[in-house]
Amino acid sequence: MIAVALSRGHIEILQFLRDRTAVVFTFFFPALLLLLFGTIFGSESSAAGVAASRIFTASMIAYGVLNTAFVTMGSGLALDREDGTLKRLRGTPMPAWAYLIGKALLVTLLSVAEAAVLIGVGVLVFDMPLPPAGHWVTFAWIFLLSVIACSLLGVAVSALVKNARNAGAILNVPVVALQFVSGVFIHPMSQLPDWLEKVASLFPVRWMAQGFRYVFLPPEAEAQEIGGSWDLGMVAMVLGVWCVIGLVLCLWTFRWSSREK
User: Fold this and answer.
1) How far apart are CA 241 and CA 234, in angstroms?
2) Where, by residue number, does the polypeptide cross the bilayer (predicted)?
């Protein structure tokens, strides 16, 4: 069955690459936003003396992961359900987990590529230095937990999409909203009302962005975070909890056909 899952993943990747619109929007829209924000605010520096372009680069990786994992997974699953792909696959020996692993391989590859593009923009355009070797280990586990949590939530939310043509618009509403309140587009988060900070802290994006800032920003930038700490323990705990929540929601909401109850 592992071979079946890998084969499905290969099919998903080929199908995605054939859709040029999806490729361009997925990879270049976050990079375009980074270029715009970094260029407009790049000459500014935080209280810690860190260039705004560097802060945007680190934070935008969280947006890139959310865009590729949550939106791609959710909209892709909604489309497969609507056009009958899932129903046809149900009549084959392929179990649901093999199909989902195939989707997971796609979003993982896309997320890695997206992160590479954003880091490349930061390094080549905004002269962002790469972090020391030890920080890449932290990057790896934050990135992995982020992809898992966002992918599982994408699977769960896809059940709410009634029309696959509207999936992108529907799924992007919470994505864009969370960027503004989670320290991605607006940093430091102390600029937000206290109640909005507390709401943002319930969701994974705030912690994803904070973790990625730890990886790419200098130690003095820690003072700009809420509580004056990177709080990596909380980053791991919140992302882990959302992985569990996402898994439970997947098991509860996944169905092969839009007509299933």
Assistant:
1) 10
2) 21-43, 55-79, 100-126, 138-161, 168-186, 232-254
